[in-house]
Design a protein that fits this description.
This protein is mostly helical. Helices cover about 80% and strands about 0% of the residues. It has helices at about 5-10, 10-45, 50-65, 65-75, 85-110, 115-125, 130-160, 170-180, 185-215. Helix 2 (about 10-45) runs antiparallel to helix 3. The longest helix has about 35 residues, at about 10-45. The two termini are about 40 Å apart.
């Protein structure tokens, strides 16, 4: 096999630009998904039962249908009722919708891991409800949730590759473009794979450092 990487490496800035779009999608979808997850988790724990059933239905639907199908619906079905979304917006909303459900499950598991006796002990010591959340629940929950949240972010970053199917020129999309122009598919996707690996390794270490120093949470990297 004769491989020629030089034409692909000459276009490295073009691919890195796509990687930057991939990261933007992942970060925004993760941030908005966290907001949705916090609202859903709060309703599940403290809201009315009927609202909790709607939240559970959302989680079941979002986690049991492919993210690609959810984005497909937003991109192709909404224009039928007069709602037009740009490819980037459709992918972002779809990724956020999907992420919110998974992050809600992670947060729910984190809160469920708090032992009742710890809360009762704080109540015996005279802690207020706010103090119990601040000093007992949150420190425990953050440590439990940080690792699965970090893993979810990595999964979401790699999942942005499906955005190329809707015309978003993120890393995979630009790799397709480069491959079709140069007819060097193996070389193009090999370079893209290396970029994805670098992104995930850097993100993993950055999240591990943040978790270690901000929340004293171990992620397995350190």
């Amino acid at each position: 096999m004769n491989l020629n990487f030089f034409p692909i490496l000459d276009q490295l800035p073009y691919l890195l630009g796509g990687a930057w779009i991939s990261l933007q999608l992942a970060v925004l979808a993760f941030a908005f998904g966290m907001v949705i997850a916090m609202i859903c988790t709060s309703i599940l724990r403290y809201g009315p039962k009927l609202a909790g059933k709607f939240i559970n239905a959302y989680v079941v639907f979002a986690t049991n249908t492919p993210q690609l199908v959810q984005i497909y619906f937003l991109f192709f079905a909404l224009p039928e009722v007069g709602i037009l979304l740009s490819p980037f917006t459709a992918v972002l909303i779809g990724a956020t919708f999907n992420a919110g459900a998974y992050l809600c499950e992670i947060q729910r598991a984190g809160f469920d891991s708090v032992r009742r006796m710890e809360i009762e002990a704080a109540e015996v010591l005279g802690f207020s409800r706010v103090q119990i959340i601040r000093y007992v629940i949150l420190p425990h929950v953050i440590k439990v949730m940080f690792r699965p949240l970090s893993n979810q972010f990595i999964v979401m970053t790699l999942g942005t590759s499906m955005a190329s199917m809707f015309g978003v020129e993120e890393l995979t999309g630009r790799t397709y473009n480069l491959s079709s122009q140069t007819y060097l598919s193996v070389e193009s996707f090999s370079v893209a794979a290396v970029i994805y690996i670098v992104i995930t390794i850097v993100a993993t270490f950055a999240l591990a450092i943040m978790g270690r120093f901000l929340f004293r949470a171990r992620t397995g990297v350190f």
